[in-house]
Amino acid sequence: MNTAASVKEILIDVLQLSSDVEFDEETPLLGAIPEFDSMAVVTVLTSIEDTFGVEVDDDEISADIFETFGALCAFVETKV
Protein backbone atom coordinates (compact mmCIF):
# COMPACT_ATOMS: atom_id res chain seq x y z
CA MET A 1 0.00 0.00 0.00
CA ASN A 2 1.37 3.41 -0.89
CA THR A 3 1.71 6.36 1.46
CA ALA A 4 -1.34 8.26 0.22
CA ALA A 5 -3.57 5.20 0.53
CA SER A 6 -2.33 4.55 4.07
CA VAL A 7 -2.81 8.19 5.10
CA LYS A 8 -6.32 8.15 3.61
CA GLU A 9 -7.12 5.00 5.59
CA ILE A 10 -5.85 6.65 8.79
CA LEU A 11 -7.97 9.76 8.20
CA ILE A 12 -11.10 7.72 7.45
CA ASP A 13 -10.58 5.65 10.59
CA VAL A 14 -9.67 8.47 12.98
CA LEU A 15 -12.26 10.94 11.70
CA GLN A 16 -14.89 8.24 11.21
CA LEU A 17 -15.55 9.32 7.63
CA SER A 18 -17.33 7.34 4.94
CA SER A 19 -14.98 4.86 3.29
CA ASP A 20 -15.88 6.22 -0.15
CA VAL A 21 -14.68 9.75 0.62
CA GLU A 22 -12.26 11.05 -2.00
CA PHE A 23 -8.99 12.81 -1.23
CA ASP A 24 -6.63 14.46 -3.70
CA GLU A 25 -3.56 16.62 -3.12
CA GLU A 26 -5.63 19.79 -2.82
CA THR A 27 -8.30 18.43 -0.48
CA PRO A 28 -8.38 20.79 2.52
CA LEU A 29 -8.18 19.15 5.94
CA LEU A 30 -7.77 21.29 9.06
CA GLY A 31 -10.64 23.77 9.20
CA ALA A 32 -12.53 22.09 6.36
CA ILE A 33 -13.49 18.81 8.02
CA PRO A 34 -15.46 19.44 11.23
CA GLU A 35 -14.23 16.20 12.82
CA PHE A 36 -10.59 17.26 12.33
CA ASP A 37 -9.99 19.05 15.64
CA SER A 38 -6.92 19.23 17.89
CA MET A 39 -7.62 15.83 19.45
CA ALA A 40 -7.95 14.28 15.99
CA VAL A 41 -4.57 15.79 15.02
CA VAL A 42 -2.93 13.99 17.96
CA THR A 43 -4.66 10.72 17.06
CA VAL A 44 -3.71 11.04 13.38
CA LEU A 45 -0.08 11.66 14.32
CA THR A 46 -0.06 8.66 16.65
CA SER A 47 -1.57 6.48 13.93
CA ILE A 48 1.03 7.71 11.42
CA GLU A 49 3.80 6.87 13.87
CA ASP A 50 2.37 3.38 14.45
CA THR A 51 1.59 2.65 10.81
CA PHE A 52 4.86 3.86 9.33
CA GLY A 53 7.17 3.12 12.26
CA VAL A 54 8.35 6.72 12.51
CA GLU A 55 8.62 9.27 15.30
CA VAL A 56 7.27 12.79 14.95
CA ASP A 57 8.87 15.36 17.24
CA ASP A 58 6.76 18.17 18.68
CA ASP A 59 8.86 20.81 16.93
CA GLU A 60 8.06 19.27 13.53
CA ILE A 61 4.32 19.81 13.90
CA SER A 62 2.69 22.85 12.34
CA ALA A 63 -0.71 23.71 10.91
CA ASP A 64 0.84 23.73 7.43
CA ILE A 65 1.21 19.94 7.58
CA PHE A 66 -2.54 19.56 8.00
CA GLU A 67 -3.60 22.22 5.50
CA THR A 68 -4.22 19.75 2.65
CA PHE A 69 -4.15 16.01 2.09
CA GLY A 70 -1.14 16.49 -0.20
CA ALA A 71 0.78 18.40 2.47
CA LEU A 72 0.12 15.66 5.03
CA CYS A 73 1.22 12.94 2.60
CA ALA A 74 4.36 14.91 1.71
CA PHE A 75 5.18 15.23 5.41
CA VAL A 76 4.76 11.49 5.93
CA GLU A 77 6.98 10.82 2.89
CA THR A 78 9.77 12.86 4.51
CA LYS A 79 9.50 10.73 7.65
CA VAL A 80 9.69 7.28 5.99
TrEMBL record:
Pfam short name (any one): PP-binding
Top-level taxon of the source organism: Bacteria
Domain Carrier: 1-80
Protein name: Carrier domain-containing protein
Lineage: Bacteria, Pseudomonadati, Pseudomonadota, Gammaproteobacteria, Alteromonadales
